[in-house]
Amino acid sequence: MSARLIDGKAFAAGIRVRVAESVDSLAIRPGLAVVLVGTDPASQVYVRNKAKQTAETGMVSFKHELPEDVSEAELLALIDRLNADPEVHGILVQLPLPSQIDSGKVINAIDVAKDVDGFTIQNVGRLTTGLPALVPCTPLGCLLMLRHHLGHLSGLNAVVVGRSNIVGKPMASLLLREHCTVTIAHSRTGDLPALCRSAEILVAAVGRPEFVQGDWIGEGATVIDVGINRLPAPERGEGKTRIVGDVAFSQAVGHAGAITPVPGGVGPMTIACLLANTLTACCRANGIEPPADLTG
Ligand code: GUN
User: Fold this and answer.
1) CB of 120 sitting under 6 A from ligand 1
2) Is the confidence at residue 296, as pLDDT, over 90?
3) DSSP state, 290?
4) Helix H or strand E segment including 64
5) Quick check: CB of 266 below 6 Å from ligand 1?
6) Residue 295: predicted pLDDT
7) Has this prediction a pTM greater than 0.85?
8) Average pLDDT over residues 15-41
9) From the centroid of its chain, how far is CA 135?
10) Of the four listed, 15, 37, 87, 94, which is most buried by Cβ atoms within 10 Å?
């Protein structure tokens, strides 16, 4: 058996078109403010891509770059200004933040209605209690791909490997909301291979390269690989790297029914869902119903 590939790149492109069409039909231009502290190269690339795609979908992109040694008080003052700015509908503070800043305090200072990362305690609480929420972008992207691929998810056995606040826990909440039977596995889970084998939906979000082995995957399971791990690839030349997921892909395709590749699976969906969340936030701020297929 060879698994079907779930093409996140194409799916994300479709979402961007949907977002752009909706933006076009609005009388207001949604605005997304992205805050970057310091000069971490990976964060700079993410922020540049977010700003570019925001503008491409017809939304307004506001970029705020602050020095590495910015104080917590200065960052909180910026968040206050963005919360009060009517042209800003979404606020994203790129993580990680430098050690002098309490990330939790900064994230929770963001207006819940503008929290397009879905990281505030209030949005987390809204998601877990079934209220309309802004949902973290990566798990939202995973959910949209699962719905598209499987139709309805009700009654399926789902195993989420990884318990982070950004992916594992909100992914589990979303799957539970879809009426899956959900297990969250982590580093202390006993007999992880057997548990994974029982999954009809397997989401790997551990941040360890090729951790999930092919024979951990039940025949025909749908596998979502959230990992983005960079490994040295000397065969490509000195200093070169290659990107692999959390699943041993070449083994997994012999067992899974469908699988997201890395790269080109979950990765492109994250920014697409950030744009969708910004549209959702703008619609809700203006009393307009956001497109149901983009809200999770
Ligand atoms: N850093 C890495 N991923 C993310 C994300 O999804 N949101 C934010 N704010 N920072 C990140």
Assistant:
1) no
2) no
3) P
4) strand 60-66
5) no
6) 87
7) yes
8) 97
9) 9
10) 37
Predicted local distance difference test score (pLDDT) of residue 130: 94
> What is residue 66's predicted lDDT score, i.e. its pLDDT?
98
Mean pLDDT of 190-217: 98
**Tokens 């749908």 — which residue?**
222
**Are residues 82 and 112 in contact, defined by beta-carbon separation less than 8 angstroms?**
no
Where is 93: in which H helix or E strand? strand 90-93
Q: How far is the CA of 138 from the centre of ligand 1 (A)?
A: 9
Q: What's the mean pLDDT in 76-87? A: 98
Which position among 117, 169, 225, 246 bears the catalytic label?
A: 117
Q: Kindly report the CA angle at 153 between 152 and 158, in degrees rounded to 5?
A: 165
* Ligand 1 atom nearest to CA at 96: 1
3-state DSSP call for residue 188?
coil
- Catalytic residue at 117? yes
240 is catalytic: no
Give the 3-state secondary structure of residue 59: coil
Instruction: Report the nearest-CA residue for atom 1 of ligand 1.
Output: 95
Cα 2 to ligand 1 centre (Å):
33
Which ranges in the chain belong to alpha helices (H)? Answer: 8-25, 41-56, 72-84, 103-109, 121-129, 137-150, 168-177, 192-197, 249-252, 266-285
Identify the sign of the CA torsion 138, 140, 142, 148.
negative
By most ligand atoms within 8 Å of CB, the mutation choice from 95, 134, 273 for ligand 1 is 95
Q: Which amino acid is at 85?
A: D
Structure tokens at 210: 């090729």
Return d(Cα 86, Cα 112) in angstroms, integer. 14
Q: What pLDDT, on the 0 to 100 scale, is given for residue 1?
A: 63
